[in-house]
Amino acid sequence: METTLKETKNANLTILSHPLIKHNLTVMRDKTTTTEVFNLALKRITYALFYESTKFLPTEDIKVETPIKKTTSKIISKNIDIIVAPILRAGLVFSDIAQELLPFAHIHHLGMYRNEKTLEPIWYYNKMKGKFKNPENTYVFILDPMLATGNSGYDAVHNFVKQGIKEENIVFMSLISAPEGVERLSKAYGKIRIVTAQLDETLNEKGYIVPGLGDAGDRIFNTL
Ligand code: URA
After folding, report:
1. How remote is the CA of residue 11 from the centroid of ligand 1, in Å?
2. Model confidence over 55-65: pLDDT tens digits?
3. How confident is the model over 101-112, as pLDDT tens digits?
4. Using CA atoms, how far apart are residues 135 and 220, in angstroms rounded to an integer?
5. Which of 14, 44, 114, 155 is catalytic?
6. Cβ atoms 171, 192 nearer than 8 A
């Protein structure tokens, strides 16, 4: 069931490969898994996704005194802004851990749902006040557990690129990706980073990832 991307031009695609991630993903795929267990398995994978997604953030040295001696040690650079952008509603599932790991980040909710016929996104919420003071030094993490067609992902990336954020400072973080979605984003924005736990086979005619795990929002929020 492992898939390879034949044509992607994106050298910045990272697929996490780890037995614990695969194990938890299997738990999530199983249609008999309850919402409670589903969300627990997702939480376990989310930490790994965030550590991978944030590993290029710039750091700076500060002085610190340990119980043993004075030394210099690293912190995340104070000269950058970080924006975490969950795509509603499924992306919300990553928000708590985003705030835990990046407490200084600004959270910018991106409200979109997809037209079931055209599979194109329809925006209903995109508000953020004055957080782009420093676009050159702003880092954006777009969160969506499922990178399927890439249509909403494209809109989300475009929303930030048009405001002067550098492509290479944007990460699209997903749990499962379809090759179609990766290629759509990669063709449009070759320098963004895509971090995912799994690349699945394909999309079905309704735009769902195969084999995937079904509707992520429904499984996360128990609205099946
Ligand atoms: N969104 C989902 O929730 N699941 C898919 O498989 C594709 C898009």
Report:
1. 24
2. 999 999 999 99
3. 999 999 999 999
4. 33
5. 114
6. yes
